[in-house]
Structure formats: C-alpha cells, structure tokens
C-alpha cells in the first residue's frame, strides 16, 4: 500500500511545485505601476500598418529614451525625425517634419466636366458658385476609400476646388513639428504649422481637444486626451482618420502611469568598534614583615 502511495505523493509534490512556480512567475516584479509610463512617435492601423515606433516604456520609473525612428517603406506616411522619453509618471515626444499622402493629390485625374467649369471661371473667381456634385475617380491612395464626389472634399466653393485640383498641394496633411508631454494626469502639446490639403489649419487652443469637420476623405483630431481606467493618462498630439476609419494614423502619444514606488536603498548601519581597553589595574601590594635593627 505504501508503494502505491509513493508515486502519488511525488506527483502531488511536483504539481504543487509547478503551481507555486507559476504563481511566483506571474507575480509582478518590484512595485512598478500596472501600466508603465510610455511614449511613441508614430503608429498606424489599416492597409498601411505601422507599429509604435520608436517606442519606450519605464517599468521601474527609471528614464528611458529612443530616437530610432524607422518607418516601413510606404507611400502614405513620412517623418524626418522623432524622439521619445518615458520616466516615473512622465513622458514626452518630439516629432519633426511629418507628411501624410505626399504627392497623392497631384495624381488625381480631373473629370472633364469639372475641368470645363474651372476653365470658365472669371480670373478673380466666384466664391458664391456652388460645388458641382461630380464623382471623383480613384484618388490613388494606398487604402480603399468609399466612393467620393467633389462635394466630399473639404473645400467651400468651386474656386477652392479648382485651385485644389489644378494646383495640388504637396501632401494631404503636413506638420512642421509636434511636441507632446505629460506629467501625472496633466499634459500639453505644441503643434507647428499644420496644413490640410494645402490650407493652414488654425488650432483655437492646445489645452482642449480640437477636431476638423468630419468628411469621408479625411478628419484630424488634435490633442486627444484620455483618462484610462487604471488611473493612467494618455495624450496624443494628432489622430488622422482617412476614409471613415479605413486608415488611422496617430502621431506623438505619451502615457503617464501612476508613479512607481521606488524603494530607497537601505543605508547599512555601521558596526560600532569594540571598546578600547585601558592598562590593567596594578595588583594590590602585599606587605612584607621584616626586622630592622635599632641603631644609636
């Protein structure tokens, strides 16, 4: 009977050991926050996916930094330089010279009917002329977009539309620079010149979220701020939506987690030196009895 129990006991001990190891392995190391402070320069979802790059996170509160901006070869997004930082309850991003959809608008063939209307405009233009509803051909974007017409473009009138198509800008969206930072549950952004289809977009305030009017081609959200369920705070400089969600691009995003508790290094207690012993006490003298002769 004891022989039959022995394998069972060994098996139970092995299982208990595996369970104990699993519990230890799954326990978070140290006292870092559930979501670490992190930052990334660029990410994209859709037909042209881009992983968060460069990306850093601070698991233990120590400062992390990266400037390794390497985007995959793609016809949609270009960035000249970017730097990201993350630390204990702080993060920041710096981006320089961003272009979305470079030279794409120059590849759009102008419908003949629209070309005739543009040629018939007076030299000074006519701002009160309504936009014609003419179906646009394939825009040449590397993403599938819904069927668009001239009324879906973010322009106000026919002269603006003619200017856009006859002298197209160099990109769909252009940004000189984007700086984003967060500290605790606060953050801010600084956006340089921002152009949409060649037109400068005036951002009314960088302390609140701002969005351009939505349309099937493109929409931009500036300074998107989110308080996450775990107590962390995320601020994203720009979110660019192409084709009603067919392609989402995020630029300059920083997340500040709850502060990681950094345990101070204990100061060793010095061992007191042994007491210094003085010279030993002299022994008590012993009287000696002797006979001294009397003289005189």
From TrEMBL:
Keywords: Signal. It comes from the Bacteria. Residues 265-286 have a biased composition (Pro residues). Residues 1-31 form the signal peptide. Residues 259-296 are annotated as: Disordered. This is Uncharacterized protein. It comes from Kribbella yunnanensis. The lineage of its organism: Bacteria, Bacillati, Actinomycetota, Actinomycetes, Propionibacteriales.
